[in-house]
Every structure is written in structure tokens, then in C-alpha cells.
Amino acid sequence: MSKTPGEIVDEAKTWWTTEIVDIQPGKIGIRGYPIQQLIGNVSFPEMIWLMLRGEVPRADQAKLLEAALVAAVDHGPHAPSIAISRMAVTCGLPINGAMASAINALDDIHGGAGQQCMELLQEIDQALAGSEPSIEVVEAVLASYVERNGKIIPGFGHRWHGTDPRAVRLVAIVREAQARGTVAGRYTTIATLVEEALGRKKGTRIPMNIDGITAAIYLELGFPAPLGRGLFILSRSVGILSHAWEQSQQGGRIKGPMPPSVSYTYAGPAARDLKR
């Protein structure tokens, strides 16, 4: 049975349904707020929160979110995503292409540790079943996690930093926020117990890194784990953009991961002749 014109219009109207934005001629509403009221009155972290969560956060919540976002913006041109953005520019891509290429590399291994750490901290919290965090429960969950996922614990240890200075600062900020009542501090306590448990097992300190402490912060603020990855990508996009722009100003053409003077290792067969 064919649809009436009115039914077709109704179907078209409901094809996309959103609670985020209402756009009409001369009108833009974000979560019910006129855009002109938001402009100049809310910060970018507050806008991120509003878009994702539906409400404007308290100032103290926004400040803690902002600290986490600031801390993860960049980690140098040796970070694969940053290197990709710079190489892409030298291959002729514009800024948007360089950023897209770099962001596409932020997946499970490079970029996913924050979300994975959030899931681990939540698993430990569930195992605690409302009781105070304890090293015994943390060790039991870690043993199960390693059995299922391998020995790498996301959010802990760093190939460059014996102690990640970003994590040290953010832990202090969380504890200050906890003292003010902004957050409960529970996930941060769990994360520090993971650090302790890893040290006891390895016989050497395995410090929390930027992914570990931002995972705790995002959980403290009530963000679900999948958004942890998205928030990291928002943060690191600032570094990606900065490096892409800098490379575009420096110039350079078809720069690979190593200068031509540094050779790669060939491990294939010795030179041979094709005999037919």
C-alpha cells in the first residue's frame, strides 16, 4: 500500500531523532539552551559536558574535566598519531586530511588504554560490592584480568617516563577536588591500589600514567567508559592539529618515519637470480 504525502513527510521527520540540537531558521538550540546564551558564558569543557550529558556541569566539575583534557593534548612527534599527522602533511594532505589520518590511528593499542583502564577500574569496583577498596580484591581482579587479556595493564607503566609527571599532577588535583566534595575519590583510590598491587607483583614500581589517572577522573565525573576514548581523542586532537600546522609551516616533502640516512633492517633472502 502506497504512503500518503503526509505519511512520507512524517517518516522523513523521524528518520533522525536527536535530543542534542534543535535548528530552525534563525534559531539554534543546544540541549534546550539558545546558542547565543551559551556563547561567551560557558567554557569549552562545559560545552563538551553539555553536549554529552545534557546538562551544564558545576564549575568545579568542569575544572576537573578541563585539567584531564589539558594533560593529554600532546606527547611529541614520536607518538604514532602525531607522527602520522606530520607525515601526512609532507605527502600533500591538507590539515583536515592530516588530522583524520592521525585520529584513525587512535584505536585499541594507541589511544584505547584510557577506556580499557576505565573498564578495569569499574570491574574492580563491582568486585568490591560497595566495600572500601582493598589491595586483596584489587589483586584478585588483576589476576583474572591478566588471565583473560594478557599481562599489559592499561593505564600503568610508561616507556618514556619512570614517573609520568602528568599523572602526579592530576592525582593531586583529584585529591583537592575530593577534599572540596567535587568527587568521591573512590576510583582514584582504586587506581592507586592497582599501582601498589603491580609493584608488589613485579618487585618494582609500575606507576600510573596519563591514561590511568584520566580514566579515574572520567569515572569520578560519571562518564561511561566508551566516552573515555572519545574524550582522549578530543584532547589529543589539539596536539595533532598543532603538529600538522607546524609541519605545514616547516615544509618538507614525503617525509617517512625515519630520515634516509637511517636504514631499516632487511631480513629476507640473500640476493639471488631468477632462473627459468
From TrEMBL:
Q: Does the keyword Transferase apply?
A: yes
Pathway listed for it? Carbohydrate metabolism; tricarboxylic acid cycle; isocitrate from oxaloacetate: step 1/2
Give UniProt keywords alphabetically.
Lyase, Transferase
Q: Which Pfam families match?
A: Citrate_synt
- Biological processes per GO annotation: carbohydrate metabolic process; tricarboxylic acid cycle
Q: Which GO terms describe its cellular component?
A: cytosol
InterPro entries attached to this UniProt entry: Citrate_synth-like_lrg_a-sub (IPR016142), Citrate_synth-like_sm_a-sub (IPR016143), Citrate_synthase (IPR002020), Citrate_synthase_sf (IPR036969)
Q: Which GO terms describe its molecular function?
A: citrate synthase activity; lyase activity
> Which SUPFAM superfamilies does this UniProt record tie to the protein?
Citrate synthase
Report which superkingdom the organism of origin falls in. Bacteria
What Enzyme Commission number(s) apply to this enzyme? 2.3.3.16
Keyword Transferase applies: yes
In which family does this protein belong, per the annotation? Belongs to the citrate synthase family.
Q: What is this protein called?
A: citrate synthase (unknown stereospecificity)
